[in-house]
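Intended use. Records such as the Glycine betaine transporter entry shown here are meant for training and evaluating sequence-to-structure methods. They are not intended to support clinical decisions.
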Amino acid sequence: MRFDFSKNSLLYISLGILLFFSFFLYFFTVETYDGIESFSILIRQLFGRFYLWLGLICVVLLVMLAISKWGSKKLGSSTDRPQFSRLAWISMLYSAGMGAGILLRAVQEPVYMMNNPPINTSAKTSTIALEYTFYQWGFTAWAFYAIFAIVVGYYLFVHSKKVLSSSAFSSISKLVPSGVAQSIIFGSIDILAILTTVFGLVAAIGLGTTQTEGGLTHILNHDIGLTGTILVLLLISVLAFISVFRGVNKGIKIISTWNIYITIGLLLFVFVQSDILSVIYQFFNALFHYIIDFIPLSLAYGRYNPGEAFLTDWTYYYWAFWLAWAPFTGIFIARISKGRTLREIILGVLFIPSLGTFFWFTTFGQSAFDIIEHLGNYQGQFDNVFTSIFIFFENYPLQSFINALTILLLISFLVTSLDSAIFVLSMFTDDGKQEPSKKHRLLWSIVLTIFAIGIILLGNAKAEINVLIAMQKLLIITSLPFSLLMVIMIILFFRDFKKKRPVEKT
């Protein structure tokens, strides 16, 4: 494996920063956690509300774009046709953009929201629980992905730019006449996108791997410990490399489609054994409240304000998480969306995955509510985010098989998230090529594995914390620079798109 430093400065600078941070994760774990905790408090105090406003603005802009005359424009030329079927396309974008998270929170989050209602409205606590869960997993999350996908895809396929985040800022070239200054500015943007991607990705891998460990511990009735968690991570990394090595068509698409089929099967397994009418009623009822309450929820206004403590632990963290995933998920979505209209992309990315996620949470959440009501005395069985879904399945037949299938699906989701990120990072550092070289894919597979192990160590730095707590604090910090950059990116895009401004070649 040979790299030319002069042609791969983006790669080497990014790797240098990541390895430097990894050094502290491995050898000064407690001190690193303490520093992250202190800094994250300051960030949340100063910029928490900024995250909320940014999310709402992204949703509103996308809806306006979809219903406008511009919605009929294609991501590409008028003769371009979609490369993938609609099912394969939705499967890939959903697996890359959400994946294992819906297994992690399927039961725990709705139950927590019911027992600790974040807002006080006239609705029942079960409806409020589902409504707020919808809010945190719905339109705003996918809006961050969709707007980044459309912006980057516009410069990539309409203006033939490279697959780099800095391509979305090409129109400022005239304002910076110096070639050296341009290189510094655009290089800094790309480095920031790479670092944001890595932090967001390894956070998800760390959480998902820990949930896999929790499931195995629950099934085997034996704690596999930190060593077992790292071994699970290594298995996921190897599978992800095999997938990304085979490419989008032969690897990522196949596994993503498999994920959707198994997810639907698991959903139907629970749904048909639930109070079907109750689930359907709750789905539409919570969806109605979510839509009519969307703006005050998005701004945490009045009685829809759950308080800074709750926002810090939940909503700010979620928004930071979705923003951290926006660079690689958005570019991956753009990469697989060539030939589709902007309206179709917005509908396919913003609404279809959201509705699917809503029905998932309604089915598992309402079923868990019914189980708790039947128990009569809830003892916190579903409080643990890493084991709740496995305990939930103890109330159903074939629990051993279903739990094993859940672990398999969890691993598969993590593989598709990791291979998608590896593919996008490889495009970044291989001169923005749409088909990056396999040596870049191998390198990023190794780097992400090393970094993810460091994140797991960080989550075990102190007895009173876990991977989830550590990631909540870290992502609040790492996603902030990219969120500020995203504001500039959106402004430039709509200016260029509206005026059909020619973009400078780079």
